[in-house]
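Here is an idea for our session: we take a single protein and study its fold together. Which protein we use is up to you, so please pick one and set it down. Once you have written the record down, we can walk along the chain together:
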Amino acid sequence: MGKFPIADKAIFKVRICKRCKARNSLRALRCRKCDYPNLRPKKARKKETK
């Protein structure tokens, strides 16, 4: 991913709400903003090559 593997690990310790796209903690069961129960883990982006 990036230059700093420690930072990359910290970025993926969140879950994203499928309704409002808010970031939530990894152990959250419901969204902190809209209280929606359907959360997904943050996806890793693939690095573009030129």
In short: The radius of gyration is 13 Å. Residues 42 and 48 are 18 Å apart (CA to CA). The chain has one helix and three strands. The first helix runs from residue 5 to 11.
